[in-house]
Design a protein that fits this description.
single chain; 391 residues; mainly alpha; hpI Integrase, Chain A; 2 domains; 3-stranded antiparallel β-sheet; 15 helices; 3 strands
Length: 391
């Protein structure tokens, strides 16, 4: 008789019963394994260890592997290494609506700490794009376990893999009217006390970084002010740049327009710093309120951004029911919407798609088309002329 688990627990806290740990999984390979793992949990941890130094990637991979492993043992009473093609089709449906909710979804749509008894693998309904991404990650997990000699085959490789078509346009962005509402809300923030003024200038600087720089939230949290530097172009003009270590540890060069440098100066002076950063200065791009010089976490940055969007939405709702649709959209928005907004507004403003591609640090124009390599000086000039924030 198989042992059933009653409630899902995080990977770092769970102990699998012997008959569910995968030692005798029906899909186990009987050849020479390249990893020392003898059970499913150890195999998944070996897969995760490859990306342990990349925090965001690690957390995303762990989340999806965790959901699958827990679903298999709690819902099906099967080890991961016994899952079949048909099981994975059931899991696709499960991702759309994890039932029973009390078992799988956290109360009130909250993300609880992993050690909290109220923690659940889900805290909200997954968007179709998130469901797709989950299956991409799980497919990568199975493929690696096959390559490592742990599994005999990948049950997902039998699925019909349809190429994802590039969407005709980006939908998760703010049009110029809504973007102006966000700026108006930021400018309306209280400024009477030093703390209020610091919060206001931090919001302006943060949204300037997202919009003018097209930065990802991980890039805002993971880079330093010392990455700004100045050099003269062929005409003798001083041009500021921001070196960014971005997704996949790829280095990028973002034009720091005059507007961006003005906002940086305002923010730095408010924090008692010189208007311009020194080369290799370790000050984070965005700081907590007060005297701390430690970088803000991704979660803290996310909270600030969502708070601004919620405030702007609240202002819209005060104008009447006719603005409810716009307010709803703002409440859905996230920091990544600002990156899409930056790309869309650059393209709409007439910037060369090669400039948009290089500013957003896309690998190819295929990623940029929904919103070719131009010389850096021309890219800086065009960005400054055609992509403005106009506070």
């Amino acid at each position: 008789m198989k042992t059933a688990l009653i409630a899902p627990r995080p990977l770092d806290a769970i102990e699998l019963p012997a008959d569910l740990d995968g030692r005798d999984g029906t899909n186990r390979s009987h050849g020479h394994a390249q990893i020392a793992a003898h059970d499913d949990l150890a195999a998944v941890r070996a897969w995760l260890a490859r990306v342990a130094d990349k925090k965001t990637t690690f957390e995303n991979y762990r989340k999806e592997a965790e959901r699958l492993l827990l679903w298999a043992i709690v819902q099906l009473g099967k080890p991961l290494s016994s899952l079949t093609h048909e099981d994975l089709q059931l899991f696709r449906q499960f991702l759309k609506d994890p039932l029973p909710h009390a078992r799988w979804v956290a109360d009130g749509g909250r993300k609880y700490a992993r050690h909290d008894p109220r923690w659940r693998p889900f805290y909200k309904t997954l968007l179709p794009s998130s469901q797709y991404q989950a299956m991409v990650i799980i497919n990568a997990l199975f493929a690696w376990l096959v390559e490592a000699g742990y599994l005999a085959g990948n049950p997902l490789s039998l699925s019909r893999q349809r190429a994802r078509r590039t969407k005709p346009r980006i939908t998760r962005y703010l049009d110029r009217e809504l973007w102006n509402e966000v700026k108006l809300h930021i400018d309306s923030l209280p400024k009477d006390t030093p703390r209020e003024r610091e919060r206001y200038l931090r919001a302006r600087w943060l949204f300037t970084l997202f919009y003018l720089g097209g930065l990802r939230i991980s890039e805002v949290g993971g880079n330093r002010m010392g990455c700004f530097f100045c050099r003269r172009d062929a005409d003798g003009h001083e041009r500021w740049w921001l070196e960014v270590l971005g997704k996949g540890d790829k280095e990028g060069l973002v034009p720091a327009s005059a507007e961006m440098m003005v906002e940086l100066g305002h923010y730095r002076r408010e924090r008692g710093l010189s208007a311009r950063p020194s080369r290799h200065e370790e000050t984070p791009l965005v700081l907590p309120l007060g005297k701390s010089m430690k970088p803000l976490t991704r979660a803290a940055l996310h909270t600030i951004v969502k708070g601004i969007f919620a405030g702007a939405a609240g202002r819209l709702r005060l104008r009447g029911d006719g603005f409810a649709g716009q307010a709803d959209l703002l409440e859905q928005a996230s920091a990544h919407w600002l990156r899409h907004t930056a790309g869309s507004h650059m393209a709409d403003g007439g910037a060369d798609l090669r400039t948009v591609r290089d500013n957003l640090r896309h690998a190819s124009l295929t990623s940029t088309n929904p919103y070719l390599h131009t010389p850096d000086e021309e890219r800086h000039r065009e960005t400054e002329e055609k992509h403005r924030i106009d506070w």
